[in-house]
Amino acid sequence: MSSILDCIPKELLTDILARVATSSLNNYFNVKLSCKMLKEVAECSNVYKCISLDEFPVAALHDMNKDARRFMNRCVACENLDALYMWGMVEYFSCDNLATALTFLNKSASLGHVGAYYIITIILLLSGKDYREKGVTLLGAMKISGEYREKVNITAKN
């Protein structure tokens, strides 16, 4: 039996599902449950890269079941900004693993996550004299960067 979805190009369906995933994690999972074809399209790397993890409980990162861990690992593998940021935060604050935390946070920041860039700066400032100078340099770069000020909605006062 043919479906109306068969008439829509897969690339367009992928774009649509990526937009759904960007707006709501719950909606993303609901779409996956709706039919076999959408479930298949929802598994595309481009969709995982866009999934918003705003609704994902951060506390669950410590005690994830197998399915949740697989989901987060897939998000990280697909360079999802939120997943990289969250994983970096957990590595630093829960596991006290500076090197691994900075790996995840640097990747997230390099892909455009402003919060990751900011937290890297703070971590470096607080991680001892070996890192402090780099933290000050990054903080100064953020302060003079119009792009970062615009993204975090900071206005310079004259």
Automatic annotation (TrEMBL):
InterPro entries: At1g67623-like (IPR040338), At2g35280_TPR_dom (IPR057136), F-box_dom (IPR001810). Residues 2-51 form the F-box domain. This is F-box domain-containing protein. PANTHER family: F-BOX PROTEIN, OS05G0482100 PROTEIN. It comes from Sesamum radiatum (Black benniseed). It holds the Pfam family TPR_27.
